[in-house]
Amino acid sequence: MSAHNRGTELDLSWISKIQVNHPAVLRRAEQIQARRTVKKEWQAAWLLKAVTFIDLTTLSGDDTSSNIQRLCYKAKYPIREDLLKALNMHDKGITTAAVCVYPARVCDAVKALQAAGCAIPVASVATGFPAGQTHLKTRLEEIRLAVEDGAAEIDVVINRSLVLTGRWEALYDEIRQFRKACGEAHLKTILATGELGSLTNVYKASMIAMMAGSDFIKTSTGKETVNATFPVAIVMLRAIRDFFWKTGNKIGFKPAGGIRSAKDSLAWLSLVKEELGDEWLKPELFRIGASTLLSDIERQIYHHVTGRYAAYHDLPMS
């Protein structure tokens, strides 16, 4: 991953006058959704690229060491070898960008990836995921323990009440403490945008998170009723662009929650390319949080290679 975002001083004058033009954002979102996607070999190439952006995720109450091992194996071998050979991509080292698990499963993931002989990073959710409604001391300790266990990336959740009540200094201070607790690990800050009340709040929370030292801003936990949507993404991407113009710091973007189809992934790649440019289309600056997306991408690759659709048992998770 790229160098850490060291953050900036809190400057509320940046965000105090911001009002997001809601109808304009919705119009832009409709444009993205209405666009025809790439076809044939171009689609296959974009889908393989999409694989390299996936944070392959399992965040279930019934996660065990064995299904973490299967997840890690799939992260290393995301597309069947014979399909990659047919596309002449078998020697390109295509893997997912990371695996993402609960803090208690970090050790399992680190061991499984070491046993598989690969350097895919382990990301851990933390800070009372998904609600963020635990004591600050507990949330900070959770980060430290995940890093101790080998997590290279920490996906924290913010305290939404600080946004809803306009307590921007308190939000900045909390995320600064998260940044410090991460040490050398990268900090990905989940805004839980479906619970922030307005697109203006989404912009302000994005900007505060970047000022406070987040390396990535992420749409959702995947557990809210509304997760990654294009209007929210447009606002977050433009906040990233504004922050880059003001500071020269490139901050990453991670949509998560509800991204299940190969077609969805192509729309997200197009959006990032159009809003931020090709330089953001790399795993250091763009991730997709997903658990079932990879299965559909693999089915589409199978169809491209063989001309027929695979049954899900043809492409098992491991």
TrEMBL record:
List this protein's GO terms for biological process.
carbohydrate catabolic process; deoxyribonucleotide catabolic process; deoxyribose phosphate catabolic process
Q: Which SMART domains match?
A: DeoC
One GO MF term attached to the UniProt entry: deoxyribose-phosphate aldolase activity
Which residues act catalytically here? K218, K254
Q: Which InterPro entries match?
A: Aldolase_TIM, DeoC, DeoC/FbaB/LacD_aldolase
The record, for SUPFAM superfamilies, names: Aldolase
What are its E.C. numbers? 4.1.2.4
Q: Which PANTHER family match?
A: DEOXYRIBOSE-PHOSPHATE ALDOLASE
Role this protein plays: Catalyzes a reversible aldol reaction between acetaldehyde and D-glyceraldehyde 3-phosphate to generate 2-deoxy-D-ribose 5-phosphate. Participates in stress granule (SG) assembly. May allow ATP production from extracellular deoxyinosine in conditions of energy deprivation.
Q: Which family does it belong to?
A: Belongs to the DeoC/FbaB aldolase family. DeoC type 2 subfamily.
* Protein name as it appears in the record: Deoxyribose-phosphate aldolase
Q: Which gene encodes it?
A: DERA
